[in-house]
Amino acid sequence: MRVYTTIKSLQKALDRLSEEHSIGFVPTMGALHKGHLSLVKSAKNSTDIVVVSIFVNPTQFDREEDLIKYPSTLKRDLELLESQNCDLVFTPSVKEIYASEIISKQFSFDGLDKVMEGEHRQGHFDGVGTIVKHLFEIVKPTLAFFGEKDFQQLQIIKKMVEKEKMPIKIIGIPIYREYDGLAMSSRNIRLSKEYRAAAPFIYKTLQEAKILFGTKNAVEVVEWVEKVFDTHPILDLEYFTIANEMTLLPIQKSNLADAKLVQKYRAFIAIFAGEIRLIDNIALHDPI
Ligand code: PAF
Fold this sequence. Notes:
alpha/beta, Rossmann fold, Pantoate--beta-alanine Ligase, Chain: A,domain 2, 2 domains, six-stranded parallel beta sheet, three-stranded antiparallel beta sheet, 12 helices, 9 strands, binds pantoate
């Protein structure tokens, strides 16, 4: 496994390799866990050469504190990637990526960025678009892999690639969960014992909401979820939405009967466990 810190050196290595090999790319912000490793495994299974980037992207953080406290575990990350037979790792500095101006470009994602995470985290998706586009231009992958935990991000990256006409196939990989159902996230290690014990309630609620969605209308399901979090002793609900998987728009009550049959819906949730913000989602169309 080779580790590169400059764009020039990575591109020099990739120029030779990409003539004869397909390139799989997994962009990350480090603090790797089994969820990331499942993306690397998928990339290994479907491409010849796997590149992983580790870069904590400042422009996608709306809360300075989250950026400062973002876990940094580079030595362990590299060991984990080595154990997965990752081929190339890119660990650039902020200066290497942004030079002197740490700012986002503006994107139009056809409204996909106006709801949920986009509504609650100002500028977040312009920051994600900026870094992912830049990394795609550097790595020029054949396939790029993203986790479905950040389902809105996944759809936004697909939209960006389509609009920018980038010849890259975006692959979504199912959420990897802890033994008790909590979606794996680099933020989980920041949870106190008390919040970590409470956090599986998020996925448990999503599963119950999915069952309810079979018999109740979407408004009733949303009200039910809001009510259970109202009485939860320590977890604070930021939003719970049932939205169309493609448009990410909330389900319309008027076309509910048709919608349930024809469209694919997903329930999305964001909660605060103290200062730590956790997100999760569940497909409502798959069997339980
Ligand atoms: O999902 C992430 O870890 C980040 O948003 C990404 C895609 C690596 C961009 O910084």
